[in-house]
Please model this.
Amino acid sequence: MAEFSERREQMVQRYLRAGYIKSDSMVEAVRRVPREEFMDSA
Model:
């Protein structure tokens, strides 16, 4: 499970840098909602 958490956080940071996530509320939403099926493989 730790690996998934790390990958999720990397995804959040990547999306922040890319401008897809623009607000703190969206950061929290992405961190809270299970997104195993939606995460990219990078």
User: Anything to note?
Assistant: The chain has a mean pLDDT of 84. Residues 2-18 form the longest helix (17 residues).
